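[step 3/7] fold_predict: job queued, chain A
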Amino acid sequence: MPNGPTWSQKLRTEIAKAVIGQEPVIERMLVALLANGHVLLEGMPGLAKTLLVKSVGTAMGVQFERIQFTPDLLPSDVVGTMIFQPKTGEFTSHHGPIFANMVLADEINRAPAKVQSALLEAMQERQVTIGGHTHPLPRPFFVMATQNPIEQEGTYPLPEAQTDRFLFKLIVDYPSAENESTMMQRWGQVTQQPELSKVSSGEELLRLRSEVDAVHVAPAVQAYILAIVRATRSLSAGTKSGAGGKRYLNFGASPRASLALFQAGRALAWLRGQDFLSPSLVQELAPDVMRHRVGLTYEAEAEEVTADSIIAGVLEKTPVPAA
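[step 4/7] structure written:
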């Protein structure tokens, strides 16, 4: 399937005009576009998370909207509201910024639960209800959210019902010394701001999904995906996962994790020019798919056991299907 690497390369080349490095994160975001999934980006301040999302939207050529989440934000500021028209004496719906192809929920954990819940229907059903009337959202539709892991004051942790709706939780790390040096050389002057061009479209993305759906997933690989996800539930149900017989998970991954591994696995295989999903790709995607879908116990947090380390242990113990 030659279309995958070609499509990926043209987008990554364009995005690289604005974002230096972060190649694994960019690839995962392209996978999410193909798999019709939302992405949660977590990283320290100043790592260009917002720029990355905006650059992907510009290169894709889709309608892009940014919502800056703050403690005083209202649900109507996100989805819209009903407005009275004096001339007609009727109420009409006013669409909010959620009505776009790609919505950046910037610093999503700064808004209270009432505002965060306004995204639940949009993220799952791709529709919004305003004044008792349901309005479909544009196709394609994605929520790309960002949050900082270190800030505590004025933040509200995302509920499990919302984090589970994200296909990926991606960790944005510091750039390498070489990439950071390139940033200083390229943008040391304020006049040298990058200008990106549209190299794809929403219509092309919707067409490419039929090629992604054609990627073969063998029954043994499907069973492997299920074994990985269900192993996290066994750990939460009483099987001891830590040293000394300690229980490290309150709950395991939901069925959305199985679907996410299946869909994202096919998309990643297609991007890399493969016509089948291999177990190695499942292993590669597992942390990004499941790190936000498992709940750590107090014992795990006290011992600084991370979700990634637990997932790595599950992968190590789960038998890999033969070729």
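[step 5/7] annotate
The longest strand covers residues 166-172.
The chain has a mean pLDDT of 86.
exit 0
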